[in-house]
UniProtKB/TrEMBL annotation:
This is 4-hydroxy-tetrahydrodipicolinate synthase. PANTHER family: 4-HYDROXY-2-OXOGLUTARATE ALDOLASE, MITOCHONDRIAL (PTHR12128:SF66), DIHYDRODIPICOLINATE SYNTHASE (PTHR12128). Catalyzes the condensation of (S)-aspartate-beta-semialdehyde [(S)-ASA] and pyruvate to 4-hydroxy-tetrahydrodipicolinate (HTPA). One of its GO terms (cellular component) is cytoplasm. Pyruvate binds at T48, I208.
Length: 298
């Protein structure tokens, strides 16, 4: 089977007005920037989209906007369909299928968590009921638990579970999953901008990126360089983007991506509590890194 996408997908930032309400026009501007920048896929309602503090109705409206804007472009739409409540995740998955998303991203249940057996049940329960490609999402830094390699292998056998977004930032873990799923119809995507080069070189199909919000064209160029084996260009871009990637996470995501987008005139810096605006010192770190990268002329 064909991968859901190959190259870079953007985990879309969600612009907000100063009163915390959603800035739908700013969101549309950002989606269009990503389309114009050549990304392979648009992820709506991911972690970077502050999904934890918006309503399910807002999620659904954002999904419809992205699907409408992506029509006719060939760019895939991946809808976030995660929850710590399996029935809520199923509701989101069914909606994504109904409105025409190309795939769903389903995060590991958080807070109440579960066992490895429970993870298999959670993901299988959803995949059995919705005929849409699913990307399981392993981000233990936020969920408090890891999807064990053997659990991934078991889930990878399901006809609708097609890939995993790996945000462990652990190349050894990724290698273990890649080696044990290589004979299955299952792909791996990095969830960490700082390991795009080694992750794709090891067999990953791409990255679901925060960095792409700021530099969509350059992130796609970087990912394609690795996929095509142009290691000279890939290494140069990895080194030159390193500080930008680092300082995009000097504060809690998506605080710093919004700072960067505000600098670019796309939207404001507003984030919903408990997130708060960053410091001037953090802004300087990011802006200096951006200037240094932009001088490279990619």
């Amino acid at each position: 089977m064909e991968p859901i996408f190959e190259g870079s997908a953007v985990a879309l930032v969600l612009p907000m007005h100063d009163d915390g309400s959603l800035d739908f026009e700013g969101f549309k501007r950002q989606v269009q920037r990503m389309i114009d920048g050549g990304v392979q896929a648009l992820l709506v309602n991911g972690t970077t989209g502050e999904t934890a503090t918006i309503t399910i109705e807002e999620e659904f409206e954002l999904t419809k906007i992205v699907i409408e804007m992506a029509k006719g472009t060939g760019i895939k739409v991946i809808a976030g369909a995660g929850s710590n409540d399996t029935e809520t995740a199923l509701k989101k998955a069914k909606f994504a299928k109904e409105v025409g998303a190309d795939a769903i991203l389903v995060v590991t249940p958080y807070y109440n968590k579960t066992s490895q057996r429970g993870l298999i049940d959670h993901y299988t329960y959803i995949a059995d009921q919705v005929e849409i490609p699913m990307i399981i999402y392993n981000v233990p830094g936020r969920t408090g638990m890891n999807i064990a390699v053997d659990t991934v292998v078991e889930l990878a056998k399901h006809r609708n579970i097609k890939a995993m977004k790996d945000a462990t930032d652990n190349i050894a873990y990724a290698m273990d999953v890649l080696s044990k799923t290589r004979d299955l119809d299952f792909d791996m995507y990095s969830g960490c901008d700082d390991n795009i080069l080694p992750f794709i070189a090891a067999g990953g199909k791409g990255v679901i990126s925060v960095l792409s919000n700021v530099y969509p064209r350059e992130t796609e160029k970087f990912a394609q360089a690795v996929l095509k084996g142009d290691m000279e260009l890939a290494k140069a871009m990895a080194y030159d983007l390193n500080d930008v990637s680092k300082y995009l996470f000097v504060d809690v995501n998506p605080i710093m991506p919004k700072v960067a987008l505000a600098k670019l005139g796309v939207c404001g810096e507003m984030v919903r509590r408990p997130l708060i605006k960053t410091t001037e010192a953090n802004k300087k770190l990011l802006f200096d890194a951006m200037i240094k990268f932009e001088e490279k002329g990619y």
